[in-house]
From TrEMBL:
Belongs to the biopterin-dependent aromatic amino acid hydroxylase family. It comes from SAR92 bacterium BACL26 MAG-121220-bin70. This is phenylalanine 4-monooxygenase. GO terms for biological process: L-phenylalanine catabolic process. Keywords: Iron, Metal-binding, Monooxygenase, Oxidoreductase, Phenylalanine catabolism. Its cofactor is Fe(2+). It is an enzyme of class 1 (oxidoreductase). InterPro entries: ArAA_hydroxylase (IPR001273), ArAA_hydroxylase_sf (IPR036951), Aro-AA_hydroxylase_C_sf (IPR036329), Aromatic-AA_hydroxylase_C (IPR019774), Phe-4-hydroxylase_mono (IPR005960). The keyword Acetylation does not apply. Its EC number is 1.14.16.1. It comes from the Bacteria. Fe cation binds at H122, H127, E167. The keyword Oxidoreductase applies. The gene is phhA.
Amino acid sequence: MAKRTHYIAKTPDHKGLIYYSEEEHAIWRDLYAQQIPSAERYSASPYLAGLDMLSMSDKCIPQCNEITERLMPLTGWSITPVPALIGFARFFKMLSEKTFPAASFIRSRADFDYIEEPDIFHEIFGHTPLLTNPGFAHFTSRIGEIGTRVKPADYSWLIRLYWFTIEFGLTMDAGKYKALGSGLTSSPTELIYSVESAVPERRAFNVIDILRTPYRIDIHQPVYYVIENIDDLFQVADRDLLADIRQAQSLGLFEPRYQCQLTG
């Protein structure tokens, strides 16, 4: 979340509204039209139920306050525009306050099929449907609450639990893999890859293992964790996650299943 971006955040006006160009609305429309058939086939039922409840526009980019008006009566969550990337401290604080930070820009045509960083399509189409569900909403705010209590050196450990569940989690439905995570449901390419490809490893859901699993944001994930029973995820909110982090740190990280990036 501290990575640079070449996108420029859009600033809301005094009413909280953001102006988007016709081309930007067209990108949303085309993304939505492309993604809906795949989402209906590959996404988990809690996500699809939330998408239906929100009734978001398929023609133009929804305003954050529109989504807030629908979410607030369901789970008490609001959506607030933010710059493309924010720091972990602010991210966790916002989640703890049941405020979801939504990057305000939309991807360009050049990044249409795959974008490394979150954009408004990822935030609204990907994340907000799960926030209609009380269990997912509570789990998300719990991650934020724990994040406000850990030391900065522990941020990278805690965020893995969010990454491999809310962002890139899988579940099972009638014996088939289904995408649960928002990074999957909003991705034209990784949604299908995560469910159908024989390349990635799919591991059983385990909190300690997740905390020990490194990841990269700029590739399709080589490892996914499969939450067989959604209640198993909801029960994580009641765990002593600070103790879990300490245990994971004592065991150390797993070897990455990807090549490390070169810097410099």
